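Look at a sample.

——
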Amino acid sequence: MAQERAGLTLDAFPNPEILENDLILYFRTNAVGPINTINAFLPLLRAGTTKKCLAISTSMGSPRFTNANDFSTFSGYAMSKAALNLAMAKYACQFRDEGLVFLTISPGLVKTMVGTKEEVDAAYAIFDRMNREKNPDFEGAITTEQSVSDILALLDKVTIANSGTFVHRDGRDANYF
């Protein structure tokens, strides 16, 4: 299963076929799937009054973030999210004149792991420590409620000037953290 190999670097896969299959699986899920969904809903978006489309991504899909944090693992996931980020920019370019906003958002490190409270807290404490080594201002893992609340508040504020950008849930450039 691709998730079991997520922590491998690109050169550590057992063979090229497994690498290719894992990458394709991630791209289908995180890039092609959202593109097909957007295409299906595009007529409704164009006819609606809000005219905003957001996609959930991750800073791991940013070359700047990857380089700044020496983050060489989770390649399939990160590369597929980078493709999603670019797809949203492509939609933004195409539909800017119609006033449609396409935005890619990093929700932060959200506590979505399954397990007991103790197991989840222990796992996220490791993530927090690793992130703070490279970024001392890292906020730490947050709840789904906090992330969703922030994303909805941001969605109310964005305008056509923001279309095509990749931002953190608070509106900051997501390429840096």
